[in-house]
Write a sequence for this structure.
């Protein structure tokens, strides 16, 4: 049984299943929704319809799914950031935004097939999927029916029909719009789209001032286009069938197995988003965005983007005031993180690649990094200002202390091997026929000072 205050929070978030923001009609300079110029758009034929899709970047694919009251434009800040190391795919859902007008097909299991068709057309066999509002429902159906196509899933501030506390959510009178639809309702709203949408933008924001006027104008104009409010109302009208479909699927196949990040706005779903996700998935991480209502990308875009990036890319957790913060990453997550070149606390050799797992070696506070060292690579004797611990993660690693490598003892280390690098103490290392991965931990700021040329081995 959900307590009244929690039910109200659920209702507020659920009622907000009705609006957000984007750029196309208002000048881009006035909006937070300007996609990078490197992005292009495509009209993709899929599952009996045509969807408007923004595509940019390079690397592993990520699909971003919007909800009602906004379009794919809402994702511009996140898309710009993810495009540095992902191929970013941002569709407008069936019948919405700039996608082709649609009269039917709004059951979320069917809309999931729309997204599969887009992934096929863009040669993305699998992708991380990030969703908000009604996008959550499409994303859940996609992940359930095509688990091989979804590597990670982010669900943001909205329930999923038939999953977890769905029945309790439906009982709240604040969610009258879940049943608001049909030809008469479309006629009532026609020409008054801004009035209708403002109710959600205002009531489900932590502070309505954080939902910009230019963004409101943009979306109101998009939703005033022929067939757009029909498509929006049809998304809600399909909820009963969506609930039936999801319950049947969970009963037959069990919960989702891929990692799931559940994000709630502090003034909206909050930690309840994780309760919803845990009812449908086994591996759930919870994040609550402070000072945000339902409209996370409008109200707190920087914090929301950071939370999503840390989950998708396994980026190092921030260190606050030089103190250790919380972080929990599997070996699979750490090994999937992006490699970079030399940085603070590394050897500086061009052939060695680095992964920053936690913190920043150039700044005060704890840090952890990995060095990925190719075969037949030598690191000359050097020192670091801080004390460090190191473990061999893979391969064969040869380590020794001393300012002259050819005069010092060398310790062969394999997986699980441990050694220390006391601050100011010269040490050296090298690989032979095998590459090696070594994980180093210290308290920054760190540095690297070479003390002698490498001798041959």
């Amino acid at each position: 049984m959900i307590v009244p205050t929690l039910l109200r929070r659920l209702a507020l978030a659920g009622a907000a299943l009705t609006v957000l923001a984007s750029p196309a009609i208002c000048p881009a300079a006035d909006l937070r929704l300007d996609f990078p110029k490197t992005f292009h758009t495509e009209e993709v034929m899929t599952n009996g319809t045509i969807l408007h899709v923004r595509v940019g970047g390079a690397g592993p694919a990520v699909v971003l799914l919007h909800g009602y009251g906004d379009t794919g434009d809402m994702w511009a800040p996140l898309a710009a950031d993810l495009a540095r190391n992902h191929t970013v795919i941002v569709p407008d859902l069936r019948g919405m935004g700039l996608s082709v007008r649609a009269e039917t097909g709004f059951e979320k299991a069917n809309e999931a097939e729309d997204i599969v068709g887009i992934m096929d057309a863009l040669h993305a066999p699998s992708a991380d999927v990030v969703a908000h509002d009604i996008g959550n429902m499409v994303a859940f159906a996609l992940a359930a029916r095509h688990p091989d196509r979804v590597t990670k899933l982010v669900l943001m501030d909205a329930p999923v029909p038939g999953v977890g506390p769905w029945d309790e959510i439906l009982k709240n009178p604040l969610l009258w719009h879940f049943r608001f639809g049909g030809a008469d309702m479309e006629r009532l709203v026609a020409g008054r789209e801004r009035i209708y949408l403002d109710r959600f933008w205002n009531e489900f924001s932590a502070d309505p001032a954080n939902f910009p006027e230019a963004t409101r104008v943009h979306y109101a104009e998009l939703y005033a286009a022929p067939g757009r409010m029909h498509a929006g109302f049809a998304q809600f009208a399909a909820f009963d069938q969506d609930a039936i479909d999801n319950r049947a699927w969970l009963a037959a196949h069990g919960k989702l197995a891929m990692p799931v990040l559940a994000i709630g706005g502090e003034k909206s779903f909050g930690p309840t988003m994780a309760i919803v996700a845990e009812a449908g998935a086994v591996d759930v991480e919870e994040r609550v965005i402070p000072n945000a209502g339902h409209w996370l990308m409008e109200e707190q875009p920087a914090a929301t983007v950071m939370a999503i990036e840390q989950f998708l890319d396994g980026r190092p957790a921030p260190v606050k005031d030089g103190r250790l913060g919380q972080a929990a990453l599997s070996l699979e997550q750490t090994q999937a993180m992006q490699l970079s070149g030399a940085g603070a606390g590394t050897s500086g050799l061009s052939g060695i690649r680095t992964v920053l797992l936690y913190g920043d070696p150039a700044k005060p506070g704890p840090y952890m990094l990995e060095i990925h060292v190719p075969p037949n690579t030598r690191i000359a004797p050097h020192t670091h200002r801080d004390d460090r611990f190191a473990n061999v993660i893979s391969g064969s690693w040869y380590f020794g202390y001393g300012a002259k490598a050819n005069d010092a003892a060398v310790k062969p280390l394999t997986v699980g091997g441990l050694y220390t690098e006391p601050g100011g103490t010269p040490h050296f290392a090298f690989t032979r026929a095998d590459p090696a991965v070594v994980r180093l931990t210290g308290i920054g700021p760190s540095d690297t000072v070479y003390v002698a040329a490498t001798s041959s081995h």
User: Anything to note?
Assistant: The longest strand covers residues 49-57. Confidence is low (pLDDT under 50) at residues 1-31. DSSP finds 14 helices and 18 strands in the chain.
